[in-house]
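Sequence and structure are kept together here, with a separate record for every protein. A complete record is shown below as an example:
=====
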Amino acid sequence: MSFPSLYSICFDYIKDHTEDIVSLDGIPFKPVVENILRHLFTTNTPLNSSILSVIANSHPKDLREAQFTWTSVLLSKASNRSAVPALTAISKHFPTFITCLKLGQSNLGDQDILLLRGFTNLKTLHLGKNPNITNRGMLYLTSITSAAPNIRLSYLEELHLSDLPGITDKSLKFIGKISTLLYIDITNTNIIDVVALRFLKKIGYRRVNKWIKPFEIDSAFDMLANMKFYRFIKDMAFQYDQGQVSRPLTAEDTPNSIQPKLHFSRTATSIADAAVEQEPANKKELVLKKRRLNTKDYLAMIEKEMFDDDSTNL
């Protein structure tokens, strides 16, 4: 006669009582928590936001490093509906569970960026093709990265801002303050490429053709593999749907499609090296006063303005 192992007894209890679990501290992520997640997302067991938050709060580092499809969510607008209700639902119930978030063409505005508070394990953020996101939205994003630990974006490594006509050179000042970033995509924005090249180089970035980490977009945001999760989010979002209607791109909103790609990456080493190489601002000013201003001088003044923490003139 065979008897169930202690592991199987504990696992069976957890998977059948997920709403009652308040902590998984001390429970090994491998294989126990991984198997719980696999069971939740591949069986008929109902999902609940409580267990998702418990897993994220008990094993945040393991969750970030695991690169699960289940923690990657694509929220784009459906028909003429906004993705804001779904983002609101996640932000209120289990933001710490999400490590990758794609919000491209989802009818977001600057104010909606504040919904990202609490996504403390977020590593990858896509905001492209949202014409209502401007420099102010980048200011909000930067403020979240330096907020209190319980709402801060402490691990944000990738930021995709392509096709945002409301983003200008001033946003570089805010983006540059997100110290954890290793990759930025600012293709088809109103950021001047020469300014971007000069400014980002000074803080350790180099221009690259394409670099996406931790995994490719197609596999990261696979709705078919994540269908159960998307249905769960859709049901939760219903209570937050206030009938937001999307504003389609107009000719004025659509960026220049022939603009060269602007992808930048950096490493922890290049960040440190860039900090050492920074020249004092007053030394640059003295040099400018001794000769007539040219194009490079104007670029230098733009860079100085972006380094100055003057967020009131947006």
User: Anything to note?
Assistant: Residues 245-255, 286-290 have pLDDT under 50 and may be disordered. The two ends are 74 Å apart (CA to CA). Residues 72-278 form a domain with the Leucine-rich repeat, LRR (right-handed beta-alpha superhelix) fold (CATH 3.80.10). The beta strands are 72-74, 100-102, 124-126, 158-160, 183-185, 206-208, 263-265.
